[in-house]
Design a protein that fits this description.
The complex is a heterotetramer of chains A (85), B (116), C (94) and D (611). Chain A is built from 3 helices and no strands. Chain A is elongated. In chain A, 67% of the residues are buried. With 116 residues, chain B is mainly alpha-helical. Chain B has one domain: Helix Hairpins. Chain B is 66% helix and 0% strand. Chain B is built from 4 helices and no strands. In chain B, helix 1 packs antiparallel against helix 2 and helix 2 packs antiparallel against helix 4. Helices cover 73% and strands 1% of the residues of chain D. Chain D has a two-stranded antiparallel ribbon. In chain D, helix 1 packs antiparallel against helix 4, helix 3 runs parallel beside helix 13 and helix 7 crosses helix 20. Classes of the chains: A mainly alpha (85), B mainly alpha (116), C mainly alpha (94), D mainly alpha (611). At the B-D interface, helix 1, helix 2 and helix 4 of B face helix 5, helix 6, helix 9 and helix 24 of D.
Chain lengths: 85, 116, 94, 611
C-alpha cells in the first residue's frame, strides 16, 4: 500500500509541474483535468473515496470546464475588440 | 516525510507558476494547483496504514475496525477545501474575464494601472 | 501486498505516466489523446484500488469518473476544435 | 434563562444572524426595492453591533464559551465547534459591527448602481470578521478567514466597470488565497503533530509535547497566512492595490478591522496555543523585525503618494508595523495599548476614508494635486478631515494617542528602548502626509507636484460612484463621519478605559484561563493583578511632539521645493532609493508572488536562527 501511495504522490508532483509549466491556458486546462484524475487516484489510495469522488467531479471536470469557458470568453472579447479597430 | 515534501513542493510550484505567469488565466490555474498541495498534506496526515474509510456498514464496535479508521476530520476538511477552491477559482476567473474586457489584455506585464 | 495493489501500481506507472507525457507536449490533439488515456486508465486504477481495499462501495468513484471522462473529452474536443484546426493555442497572446 | 446562558446563546447568534439575513436578501432581493434592502442590512448590522456590546459587558465578568449544538469534547478529543469570547475578541467583533453599520449607512446615498449583492456581501463579510474574532478552533479560524476573504475580493470588484478595480481585486484574491493555503498547510502540520484543532486542546497537547520542527514550522506557516492578511511587508502589496480601487465604504472595513484581525489571529494563536511551548525570544525577534520593516516601508510609501486612498492604505501598513512591534514585544501593557490603538485607528482612519469618498463623489477624483483648493467651500468635511489627520498623528484626546502612550510604555518595558522614537516618526510621517493633503485640498495652499510626486499613481482614474456630482453632504453620510470622529475622541477620554484594556490584555494572554474555560467550564477570570495604564505626562508630551513633527512634515510636503538649494541637493541623493521602493509596488501579480516566497523564506530564517 505504501508503495502505491509513494508512486501516486510522485505522479501527482509530476502532474503539478506539467500544469504549472504549460504556458498556453487552453492546453493547461486539459492537463489540469488529467491532474485532477491523478489526485483522485492518490486520494483513493489514501482511503478517502468521498474526497476522491468530489475531486473527480469538481477538480477533474467542473474546474477545467470553467477554465475553458473563461478562455473562450476572453478570446471572443478580444476578437470583438480587434474587429472594432 | 515524503508526503510533506510533495505537498510543500506542489504549493511551491504553484507560487512559482504565478510568479512567472504571462497570462492571468494561467496564474489562476496555478493558484488552484497550489491549493491542491493542501489536500495532499491534509489527507496524508489523516491516513494511517492498513486503515479503511470512515464509512460504517455496521456498528464500528461490531465490525472491530474502530481503531483502524482513517481520520474523518481531515477528510471533512479536505471536502470543504475542495469546494472553497472551486468557488475561489471561478470567482478569480470571472475577474480575469472582466480584466480582459476592460484592459483588452490578460498579460500581467501589460497591466499598468496600479503602479507606484 | 495483493495482486490488486500490484495492478494499481503497474497501471499508474505504465498508464497514467504516459498519459501525462502525452499531455505535456505536442499539439492540442495529442494532449486530448493524453486526456482520453488518463480517463480510461484512471477508471482502471480506481477499480484496482477499490478491490485492493476490499470495499465495493469505493466503486462509485470509478463509475462517476467513467461517466464524466467521456463527456469531458467530448466537451474539450468541441472547445479545442478551432485550435486543432488552426494548429494554434487558444488564449495564447501570440 | 440566566444572564450567562443568554450571553452564551448570543455568542453564535452574532455570527449566524448576518449569514441568514444575507441569504434571505439574496433569495428575495429581486422583489425588494433599494430602501428596504438598505434598512434591512443596516438594521441587521446595528443589531449585531448591539449584541456585541451586550456580549462585551458580559465578557467583562467572565469568559463566554458556547459549544454549537452542545458537542462538547469527550475523552480529550473534540469535533464540536466552539465560540469563545473574551474582552479582546468581542471588542474586535464590536469594532467590526460598528464600522459595518456606519459603512452601510454611508452607502445609502453614496452608491447609485448597486443592488442587493452588495448588501449581502457586506453582511457575509461581517459574519466572517465576527466569526474569526470569536472562533475557538483553528479550522474555523481558517473557514472564517476564507469567508471574509471571498467577500472582500467580491466587494473590491463591486465597481466592475472600473478597469483598475478588477485588477486590484484579482491581485488581492490571488495573494490572500496563497496566504490562506499556507495557513492551511500549517494547520495540517499542527494536526499531524497533535491530532487537535481546538485551540484549548491544542494548547494542552503542545505543552505536553514541547517544540520540535513540525510544531515550529506549523506555527510559522499559520502565522504567515495571517500576516498576509495583516499586510506585513513583504506580503502587503495587495493592500494598497485593493484600497486604491475598492469602494470607499469597503475600505473602511479593510483598514479599520480586517487587517488588524490578521494580527489578532497571530496573537490569539501564540498566546493561547504556543506561549507555553515556543521560545519567547525567537517570536519577539521575528515580529519586531517584521514590524520595523513594515513601519518604515509603509511610512515612506505613504509620504510619496498623491492618490489619497492609496496614501491612506500605506498609512495603514505603517500602523500595522507599529502594532506588530507592540504585540511582538509580548508585553501585556503593549498588547493593551495595541488594542486601544486599533480602536482609535479604526475610528480616525474610517473618517479619513469617508472624507475621501465625499471628495470623490463631488469632484470625481481623489488626486491631491487635481483637488488642490477645490475643497475650500466644503467646511464640515474639511474640519473633520483635518481633525482626523491630527488624531492619526496621536493628538490627545483621541484614542490613537492613548493607545500610542500605552504601547510605548509597554515596548520600553519589554526592552525596546528605541520603540517610542520609531512610533513618533511613523505617527509624524503618516499624520503629516494626511495633513499635507488636507491643507492642499481644503485650504488650497502649497506648491505643485515635484518630480517625485508627479510620477506617482494619479487619483484621477478612480471612477466616482454617483452619476452626478454631489454638492451637499447628505445626512446619512454626515452622521457616520461625525459620529466616528466623536467616538475616536470619546473612547480616549473614557475614565478607566486604559485600565480596562490592560486588564483585558492580561486575560487575553492568560493561556491557563482560556484552556480551563473551554475544557473545564471554569469561565471566571480569577484574581488578576490590578493593572493601571492610561495617559501619562511623558506620553502626552510625546504625543504633542509627534503632532508637531507631523505639522512639520506637512509643511515640508507643501513648500519643500522652496528649501535652500544645498538642502535640496542632499535630499535628492535619496531619490534612487525612493524610486526603487516605488517601482517595487508594480501592480504585477507575478512580482507579488515572488515577494511572498521571499517573505516566507525570510520568516523561516528568522524563526530558525539561534536566539
Amino acid at each position: 500500500m505504501n508503495i502505491l501511495i509513494t508512486v501516486a504522490l510522485t505522479l501527482v508532483l509530476a502532474g503539478a509541474a506539467v500544469v504549472v509549466f504549460t504556458p498556453v491556458p487552453s492546453r493547461q486546462a486539459v492537463v489540469l483535468s488529467v491532474y485532477g484524475i491523478l489526485l483522485a487516484a492518490l486520494f483513493m489510495a489514501l482511503q478517502a473515496p468521498d474526497v476522491a469522488l468530489s475531486q473527480v467531479a469538481v477538480g477533474a471536470a467542473v474546474v477545467p470546464l470553467i477554465v475553458m469557458l473563461a478562455i473562450r470568453k476572453i478570446d471572443s472579447l478580444r476578437a470583438a475588440r480587434r474587429r472594432q479597430r | 516525510m515524503y508526503p510533506y515534501v510533495v505537498a510543500g513542493a506542489i504549493l511551491f510550484l504553484g507560487v512559482i507558476g504565478i510568479a512567472r505567469s504571462r497570462n492571468l488565466v494561467h496564474a489562476v490555474v496555478c493558484l488552484a494547483v497550489a491549493q491542491s498541495g493542501t489536500y495532499v498534506l491534509l489527507l496524508t496526515v489523516g491516513y494511517q496504514r492498513g486503515a479503511t474509510a470512515p464509512i460504517f456498514q455496521s456498528a464500528p464496535e461490531k465490525a472491530g475496525y474502530a481503531a483502524t479508521l482513517v481520520d474523518p476530520v481531515v477528510q471533512a476538511l479536505t471536502l470543504t477545501d475542495i469546494v472553497v477552491s472551486a468557488t475561489v477559482t471561478s470567482m478569480l476567473l470571472a475577474l480575469a474575464v472582466q480584466i480582459a474586457k476592460r484592459h483588452d489584455t490578460v498579460d500581467p506585464d501589460e497591466l499598468r494601472s496600479l503602479r507606484g | 501486498m495483493n495482486a490488486w495493489i500490484v495492478a494499481a501500481i503497474v497501471l499508474l506507472v505504465a498508464g497514467l505516466g504516459p498519459a501525462l507525457l502525452f499531455c505535456a507536449r505536442g499539439s492540442s490533439a495529442s494532449r486530448l489523446v493524453g486526456l482520453q488515456l488518463a480517463g480510461v486508465v484512471g477508471v482502471l486504477v480506481l477499480v484496482a484500488i477499490a478491490e485492493a481495499a476490499g470495499q465495493p462501495m469505493y466503486l462509485i468513484v470509478p463509475l462517476v469518473l467513467a461517466t464524466l471522462s467521456a463527456t469531458g473529452t467530448l466537451v474539450f474536443t468541441r472547445t479545442l476544435h478551432q485550435d486543432v484546426r488552426a494548429g494554434q493555442g487558444a488564449g495564447d497572446d501570440g | 434563562m440566566t444572564h450567562d446562558q443568554m450571553a452564551n446563546a448570543l455568542l453564535p447568534a452574532v455570527v449566524v444572524a448576518p449569514i441568514v439575513v444575507a441569504c434571505l436578501l439574496l433569495a428575495l432581493g429581486r422583489r425588494l426595492d433599494r430602501p428596504t434592502i438598505d434598512v434591512v442590512a443596516i438594521a441587521t448590522s446595528a443589531a449585531v453591533a448591539t449584541a456585541d456590546g451586550v456580549l462585551l459587558s458580559a465578557a467583562g465578568n467572565h469568559r463566554l464559551v458556547a459549544w454549537l449544538g452542545g458537542w462538547r469534547p469527550q475523552h480529550g478529543a473534540s469535533v464540536g465547534i466552539v465560540f469563545v469570547g473574551d474582552q479582546v475578541g468581542v471588542g474586535a467583533a464590536l469594532v467590526a459591527g460598528v464600522l459595518m453599520t456606519c459603512a452601510l449607512a454611508y452607502s445609502w446615498r453614496y452608491f447609485e448602481n448597486i443592488h442587493v449583492n452588495f448588501h449581502a456581501l457586506m453582511l457575509l463579510f461581517l459574519a466572517g470578521l465576527t466569526g474569526f474574532s470569536l472562533s475557538g478552533d483553528l479550522f474555523n479560524m481558517f473557514v472564517f478567514f476564507e469567508l471574509m476573504g471571498v467577500a472582500a475580493y467580491a466587494l473590491t470588484a463591486v465597481k466592475v466597470e472600473d478597469p483598475t478595480a478588477v485588477h486590484g481585486a484579482l491581485n488581492f484574491g490571488v495573494i490572500n488565497s496563497l496566504g490562506a493555503y499556507i495557513s492551511l498547510m500549517g494547520i495540517g502540520m499542527l494536526y499531524a503533530a497533535t491530532g487537535q484543532l481546538n485551540l484549548a486542546l491544542l494548547s494542552r497537547a503542545l505543552t505536553a509535547r514541547g517544540p520540535d520542527v513540525l510544531v515550529v514550522v506549523g506555527f510559522v506557516a499559520v502565522a504567515t497566512g495571517f500576516l498576509v492578511k495583516a499586510a506585513a511587508v513583504p506580503f502587503h502589496f495587495w493592500l494598497d492595490d485593493a484600497h486604491a480601487v475598492a469602494p470607499t465604504p469597503v475600505c473602511v472595513l479593510f483598514s479599520g478591522i480586517m487587517v488588524e484581525l490578521g494580527l489578532y489571529g497571530v496573537a490569539r494563536l501564540y498566546w493561547v496555543a504556543f506561549s507555553g511551548t515556543l521560545e519567547a525570544g525567537t517570536i519577539q525577534r521575528l515580529f519586531v523585525v517584521l514590524g520595523v520593516v513594515t513601519a518604515v516601508v509603509g511610512s515612506v510609501m505613504c509620504l510619496l503618494q498623491r492618490h489619497l486612498k492609496r496614501l491612506l492604505a500605506f498609512s495603514t501598513i505603517a500602523h500595522t508595523g507599529m502594532f506588530l512591534i507592540a504585540v511582538g514585544s509580548l508585553n501585556p501593557v503593549a498588547t493593551a495599548g495595541t488594542a486601544v490603538y486599533v480602536v482609535g485607528h479604526a475610528a480616525v482612519k474610517s473618517v479619513l476614508f469617508l472624507c475621501a469618498g465625499v471628495l470623490l463623489n463631488r469632484f470625481g477624483s481623489v488626486d491631491e494635486f487635481t483637488l488642490q483648493g477645490k475643497g475650500r467651500d466644503a467646511r464640515l468635511t474639511g474640519i473633520v478631515f483635518m481633525l482626523a489627520g491630527l488624531g492619526l498623528a496621536g493628538m490627545p484626546p483621541f484614542a490613537v494617542g492613548l493607545g500610542k502612550v500605552m504601547a510605548e510604555e509597554g515596548v520600553v518595558r519589554a526592552g525596546l528602548w528605541w520603540g517610542p522614537v520609531l512610533f513618533l516618526l511613523v505617527a509624524a510621517a503618516t499624520g503629516g502626509a494626511v495633513l499635507r493633503v488636507g491643507a492642499r485640498v481644503f485650504l488650497g495652499i502649497g506648491r505643485g507636484p515635484g518630480a517625485e510626486e508627479a510620477g506617482a499613481m494619479s487619483g484621477d482614474e478612480e471612477k466616482r460612484e454617483l452619476a452626478t456630482g454631489m454638492t451637499r453632504l447628505p445626512v446619512t453620510m454626515g452622521i457616520p463621519l461625525t459620529a466616528l470622529l466623536a467616538a475616536g475622541a470619546i473612547v480616549g477620554l473614557l475614565p478607566g478605559f486604559g485600565d480596562q484594556a490592560a486588564l483585558a490584555a492580561g486575560r487575553f494572554a492568560g493561556r491557563a484561563g482560556y484552556v480551563a474555560a473551554v475544557l473545564d467550564g471554569t469561565t471566571s477570570y480569577g484574581a488578576s493583578p490590578a493593572a493601571s495604564a492610561g495617559w501619562s505626562v511623558e506620553g502626552i508630551v510625546l504625543c504633542l511632539a509627534s503632532v508637531g513633527a507631523a505639522a512639520l512634515v506637512a509643511l515640508l510636503g507643501l513648500y519643500g521645493t522652496a528649501l535652500p538649494r544645498q538642502i535640496l541637493a542632499v535630499l535628492r541623493t535619496a531619490r534612487p532609493a525612493l524610486h526603487m521602493m516605488r517601482s517595487v509596488h508594480s501592480g504585477h501579480i507575478g512580482d507579488y508572488a515572488a515577494w511572498l516566497l521571499f517573505g516566507v523564506g525570510g520568516i523561516i530564517v528568522l524563526a530558525m536562527l539561534p536566539p
